[in-house]
Amino acid sequence: MASLASNPKLQLAATAAVSAVLTAAAVLSYQHLQRDDRVSRLKQSIPQPNDAEPSLPQVTRIGPLPHMDREDEHNLALAQRAQQGDFDDELVLEQLARTRAFLGSDEALGALRRAFVVVVGCGGVGSHACAALARSGVARLRLVDFDQVTLSSLNRHAVATLADVGMPKVQCLQRRLVAVAPWVRFDLRLQKFEARVAGELLQGWDGDEGSRPDFVIDAIDNIDSKVELLKYCHDRGLPVISAMGAGTKSDPTRVMVADIGASVEDGLSRATRRRLKLLGVTSGIPVVYSTEKMGEGKAALLPLPEEEFQKGSVGDLGVLPDFRVRILPVLGTMPAVFGYTLANHVILKITGYPMDYQPAKARDKMYDGILAYVQASEEKIVRMVEAGQPDAAIGLKVPITPGDIAFLVEEAFRGRSAITGIPTKLVLIRWKKPQQTTLVRIGEGKDEQKSSNLRLRDLVCMTKEEATRHQKEILQGDKGHEDLYSREVIEVVEARQKEVEAYERYR
């Protein structure tokens, strides 16, 4: 310290260093304040969503735009004239001339113009599907979505602008599309799709009980709502097509249409298939999905950063309480590809234009065969445990369906033996030897019902040869799993069983 006090050069250097630090701090502070000010002014210049917590009454119809500009007023007046018939049909036909030429007949175009399509989910994917349908001639569109346009929506939404931020997505679509196709009639539903209101949201146009939608488009990214919608449509024979995950995808050449039983390489598709199979739906629903594989350097679904959780009130980041909170990387072009593919499929189906998509795996016979194998194996176990009752297995039922078999084989065990990874001649068999009776009796005499207490998590996928050895050595013998299988195999089986247990609650 003494040398610093007596050395003018050192004093000058120290002063310069301190001055540089203070100057840098001042500059950084100024830049930070400027950035905050710019962000604040930008936010103030954009209409914000209602500060109140979104409410979801059973059916919420959207009224007129709260603040219409001159263009809105002009478009609305034109739309009212068009929908009242005061619009030259030749102008409509001229606008649809290219579609008419492609379809090849007035009948096909007429079918499209009479069509009634419901679009559930009006974000990146749904908005592009809706826009394509309106431009192609579909004259009745019911739009279902509870969400509002946000700044982050603008990288992928088909029509939203900065002026639409804070507006319900369904209303934003109507606002922009009436300027393109004023003859299109919109039925707007500001609502989250749920099974309890499915009948209202998918009813006929204007509540007509004698009619129903010509097609339903599922563009929902929430698993529960998606499964409820697809199950409802499947059970009632409503034509439906579903969009799988466009997030994290980047290759438009890998997007295709296939039956849900054949879709692969897609997390949302896999989760949807699992839930539907447990509900007995194994095929019959076309889906748009990507075969693109994940790889090093590619975008991936990201968890919310830990610092956001530490701030508290994580629920405030979601659109609704208890709704999924995650960071989903999305390249803005891919939702458009998915949305146009959905609309393309609907247009061709409604007009009867020739088309084919990849068929579902023809594995129903295989599932029936595996179910028969499970039945026979359970009967052997009952006869073994109930040795003193030779008729105990007669009339035995197993609480397993072909949908359960499909789920276990294709989803839980990835279509392979858990023992060797072999993908052929697969069966399902109990993993553990029962320590007590597996027989469940209800009633007496001729009204008696016999069933096995088998659960999905009890079964493991093997080849037929492996299962024969497993039955003899473990289920009917005295050997343990460690005597037949490696620690790695046992860990794989246990991991699969935990997955199955988690999904069993959706049965």
Automatic annotation (TrEMBL):
Keywords: ATP-binding, Ligase, Membrane, Mitochondrion, Mitochondrion outer membrane, Nucleotide-binding, Transmembrane, Transmembrane helix
GO terms for MF: ATP binding; tRNA threonylcarbamoyladenosine dehydratase; ubiquitin-like modifier activating enzyme activity
A GO BP entry: cyclic threonylcarbamoyladenosine biosynthetic process
Membrane topology: Multi-pass membrane protein
GO-annotated cellular components: mitochondrial outer membrane
Region annotated Disordered, chain positions: 45-68
ATP-binding found in the keyword field: yes
SUPFAM superfamilies with a match to the protein in the record: Activating enzymes of the ubiquitin-like proteins
Domain of life: Eukaryota
InterPro entries with a match to the protein in the record: ThiF/MoeB/HesA, ThiF_NAD_FAD-bd, Ubiquitin-activating_enz
Localization terms from the record: Mitochondrion outer membrane
Gene3D superfamilies, sorted: NAD(P)-binding Rossmann-like Domain
Chain ranges of the THIF-type NAD/FAD binding fold domain: 105-357
Function, as annotated: Catalyzes the ATP-dependent dehydration of threonylcarbamoyladenosine at position 37 (t(6)A37) to form cyclic t(6)A37 (ct(6)A37) in tRNAs that read codons beginning with adenine.
Recorded family membership: Belongs to the HesA/MoeB/ThiF family.
Name the record gives this protein: THIF-type NAD/FAD binding fold domain-containing protein
Source species of the chain: Thermothielavioides terrestris (strain ATCC 38088 / NRRL 8126)
